Amino acid sequence: MKPFDVAIIGGGISGTVAAIELAQAGKSVVLFEKSSQLGGRAISVKKKGANFNLGGHAIVKGGSAEEVFQDLGVIIEGGSPSANISVLWNNKVTPMFKFIFSQNLSWSGKMESLKFFAKFVRIDADSVPTISVRSWIEQELHDPMVRHIVYAMLRVGSFTLAQDHQMAGPVLGHVARTIALSMCREVGKPSLISFMQKQIGQA
Q1: 123-131: long-range contacts at Cβ-Cβ below 8 A with a sequence spacing of 24 or more?
Q2: Same domain, yes or no: 54 and 110
Q3: pLDDT of the residue at 182
Q4: Helix, strand or coil, per DSSP, at residue 200
Q5: Are residues 26 and 46 in the same domain?
Q6: Whether 118 and 74 share a structural domain
């Protein structure tokens, strides 16, 4: 095997983007991936007619990821997600707005949740202290049910359960942008992965 300038381990989105950019910069690159296909957590699999995302399913419009893909010439399809957010509680699905004003929240909980969501979409992620998501929630919110709602929202928005290990600022900023912009683009599509593979070959 001839020597390479750079060896990249992992053919997910980060690995493939790094390989493309390094190759375009004139470096010889070898990419190692244990799976039979590239894409990592950006892959979607189809089972019994339904698509399942292995990781994040969307890119927020105007975010850093979209900027990287645009620089590479990657065309990402997608559209606006539904603004109808619901809560699953005690085996019942209830629209978020109705849930907040239901008997599930105390009067103080209702007020705290309304104040939180009013401020949340305008949050300055850079001003958030360097603490974990859990520490931030425990510090900022007092009503147990409101905490449950926000934990669930951040878990869904960041695709992880690691509130003790995630930094609050980046997670809050990402989820707030998603809500405020109300525009996501699909990433878990064969067309995106195929395009990235083609880019690697051309680079």
Answers
A1: 123/172, 123/173, 123/176, 125/169, 125/170, 125/172, 125/173, 125/174, 125/176, 126/169, 126/173, 128/168, 128/169, 128/172, 128/173, 129/168, 129/169, 130/167, 130/169, 131/167, 131/168
A2: no
A3: 46
A4: helix
A5: yes
A6: no
User: Are residue 70 and residue 11 in the same domain, yes or no?
Assistant: yes
Taking the model in full, what pTM does it have? 0.61
Domain-located, residue 1: no
Condensed to tens digits (0 to 9), the pLDDT of residues 165-197 reads: 888 888 888 788 776 654 445 545 555 666 666
Comparing CA positions, the residue from 101, 98, 103, 105 lying closest to residue 142 is 105
CA torsion through residues 69, 196, 159, 169, sign:
negative
91 and 176 housed in the same domain: yes
Q: Helix, strand, or coil here: 170?
A: helix
- Number of residues that this document lists for the chain: 203
pLDDT single digits (tens) 146-170:
999 998 888 877 777 788 888 888 8
Number of domains, the chain: 2
- CATH for 41: 3.50.50.60
